[in-house]
Amino acid sequence: MNRPLALVFDFDGTLAELNIDFGLMARQVEALARRMGFAGPWPAGYLLEVVGRVANALGDGFAAQAEEVIRQVEVEAAARGRLFDFCRPLLAGLRREGLAVAIVSRNCAAAIRRVFPDIDAHCQAFLPREAAPRPKPDPAHVLAALERLGVWPAQAWMIGDHPTDMSAGRAAGCFCLGLTSGRSDAAALCAAGAGLVLADAGMIAEMIAA
């Protein structure tokens, strides 16, 4: 494991408390689809990708309304959210060490900025889902961030609390560092591609300084 030139961080569960009610979000989106006439079995998978598949049947109108439902749940959750105490000191310290920092998320910009209004001062690239070519676990999300940083994937670490972070980072060609500060355990993170698992991102500062 070499010292990186860049660190790409997930947000919820990695730099901030994860408090989005994904069950509520999924139920509201499915209810919307049923009201609009979707009668088939509800697809399995992550909700953003499910919305895309259902939109093939219902059209762009459903996709836009589903996005608004998702955004409202995210922004409401952000009102109850907070950054982990180590977040700002960690990111500032990494920048002092000369490392490039990006933050990528499947969450929307409005929700993230509600929790972290000064995010742009703490990273060189911020790509919420609206700014991603395709969101994680697609590696395009990570690769777009690295392109903005001007760093090759092999010179970067992808850091996150969810298997989608590990899958995206591994497919992009990054070293993947998993965190159990969200809702995934070490086994799930390793199975998805983590080369190392830590309790939280606050421990990274000591690793970089060593």
TrEMBL record:
Listed EC numbers: 3.1.3.18
Gene3D superfamilies registered for this protein in UniProt: HAD superfamily/HAD-like (3.40.50.1000), Putative phosphatase, domain 2 (1.10.150.240)
Molecular function terms from GO: phosphoglycolate phosphatase activity
Highest taxon of source: Bacteria
Keyword Nucleus: no
Signal sequence residues: none
Keyword Hydrolase found: yes
Keywords: Hydrolase
UniProt enzyme class: hydrolase
Family: Belongs to the HAD-like hydrolase superfamily. CbbY/CbbZ/Gph/YieH family.
Name of the featured protein: phosphoglycolate phosphatase
